[in-house]
Amino acid sequence: MVAKKYIKPQVKRKKTKILRDASRVITRLHIPDDSSCRIPKIIDRVAGLTEKAAKELVDKIHLEFFDRHKDIKRVFDRHFRKATKYIPKPKQLSEAKKTLLGAYFTMEYSIESAALFNPSIVPHPNQTHVSKDSLRFIMSLRATGEGHISSIVFRSGIIDDMNSIIFDPIVEFVGTPDVQRNPVYDRHLFQLKLNEMNACNEITTHVLEQLPDEFSHNELKDVLDHLRSNPDFTGTSETIETMHWLANSNYEVTFRADHRISERVIFPASENESSGIEDARFVQFFDDNGDVTYYATYTAFNGFNVLPQLIETKDFITFKIITLNGQAVQDKGMALFPRKVNGRYVMLSRQDGENNHIMFSDHLHFWQESEIIQEPTRPWEFIQIGNCGSPLETNKGWLVLTHGVGPMRQYCIGAILLDLDNPAKIIAHLQEPLLTPHEGEREGYVPNVVYTCGALIHNGNLVIPYAMSDTSSGIATVGVDEVINCMQRS
Fold first, then answer.
1. Residue 440 reports pLDDT greater than 80
2. 39 and 127, same domain (yes or no)
């Protein structure tokens, strides 16, 4: 029998490129090293200025920075208050000097000065006034700046009936949200996570007994502060820090609704992610009752360890950050299916850094077991394979974009097809990569890489935003049926 000749899908690369812009800056709190010693000295220096000199400096700073940030005075006030927490008795200062000190304790951070890459794309929650056969979308990207700290930024636009992509204008301002440190915690889930961390003991039991079934961050803090001062409990320091760490890993951020999506930046807000929020994979999730929630898995990095986390939002204005739990919550690259399968949540993962895994769970936040569904078998993926975002449902199966790493650490994008009712079963796969870095995509921060964190299907076409060598991003399209018809049955 003559072997069937392999036909490669015809992928079309759009001319549009999504490029980094070093002028997009946020404000960050700037606390000098040895803060308890240096902050009082800085305050004394400002306090020693005449009122006239202080006001002149404030006017000069305002003139230089007001057109780079919305409401810069509010930022200075907030950072002044945070800085004075480092000294026991703040001096009595004029409003001008408080504002000036806020400026000294503020720095600009260029969020995407190094790179803008690893995009994912989902339908926008608001499709009003969108013409027939067109789709409004939201794209998330990993932005990287000074010190290789990563955050999540957004773009929006329209894909029309001809698959042309029109991005909304990007505003010059960009800002971070308000961080809410006291969301409600479920006591039972909190205890399960402590148990998983091998942190349960008589102290955690005592603390949790003092709390209601649902408690706030402030309620937990009050109990821990009281415990810290109780002489009957010794050796509590490590346990208290562990409970604080867990509580601070779960928080909410809220943006102003009147700010455009491109103004919003989710910047690291907890110790777990102090060195970056990496590779968010957003998915539009449909619950059994038809409700829609947007979830994103991402990797929190503190400079030493990675921790998979979950983002939840309905509107891309308020985001809940939640800890993922369970023995199977390891490594990077988790991708949630867009709905339950046979009554259970399903997620792709890469626990061992080499193979494609799948996980099933009755609870979205807890994942205990995984199984390998795909191992590297082709030369372009001999080093490792993994998913490239959440599976896409078609009438022929779950279409999953994958990444493979081959010789010279070249990253390519491939595809597999999973059974609709049994997604642990691969029913077909592409023999060759769908996307391989071409000459114009090979140079960058990490050479020879094409990568995506999620695509979507529009009018029968697969729309793939993809990163080029970890520096910038582009968009490719290809027919869904064409991809599946070019696959080899497993």
1. yes
2. no
